[in-house]
Design brief:
With 159 residues, this protein is of the alpha/beta class. The chain is built from four helices and eight strands; from the N terminus they run βααβαββββββα. The strands form two sheets. The chain has a four-stranded mixed sheet with strand order 3-2-1-8.
């Protein structure tokens, strides 16, 4: 079992192609590419943390069914399909690294002064990164989710 992290898929959101200059001719092409990339690396026994803006529509189940893995969703600014039972942040220690996942980037977050990292969405790769903080949106990773191993390797090498 592996943890994966992603954000800002914006399934069925036609305008995101223009807003983020995504290289797709249609929302169907975009959705299919994100699903293909996801399923290429995520297996059914893996856990995927989605840090917001999964879809604008109330048809989230149509996408969730097509994606490998078990899913944990954090409410983003466009997740109108979610109710108050969904997470605002998700925290977990994995292999000695304390991870705080949120939709919005934080200036400070739980255990930030003790080496924890903040993985976030919302910015589509347009925000200058801070130490111990990464934008995990699909726009920053060629429309793939990040594996925990990638996150771990990056932060072990971060100066």
């Amino acid at each position: 079992m592996t943890y994966f992290f992603t954000a800002d898929e914006h399934f069925s959101h036609t305008k995101i192609i223009e807003y983020c200059n995504r290289p797709f001719k249609s929302v169907e092409e975009m959705d299919n590419k994100i699903i293909k990339n996801h399923n290429e690396i995520v297996k059914n026994n893996d856990i995927v943390i989605h840090a917001g803006d999964f879809t604008l529509k109330h048809n989230a189940d149509n996408y969730i069914r097509r994606l490998n893995g078990s899913h944990i969703f954090i409410r983003g600014s466009h997740d109108y399909w979610m109710d108050e039972t969904y997470h605002e942040i998700w925290e977990k220690e994995i292999n000695g690294i304390y991870i705080v996942v949120s939709h919005y980037p934080f200036r400070s977050w739980p255990r930030s002064f003790h080496g924890s990292i903040n993985l976030h969405g919302h910015c589509h790769g347009k925000l200058e990164p801070m130490k111990k903080q990464s934008d995990i949106g699909v726009d920053t990773h060629n429309f793939y989710p990040y594996s925990f191993e990638e996150i771990e390797k990056y932060y072990k090498n971060e100066k």
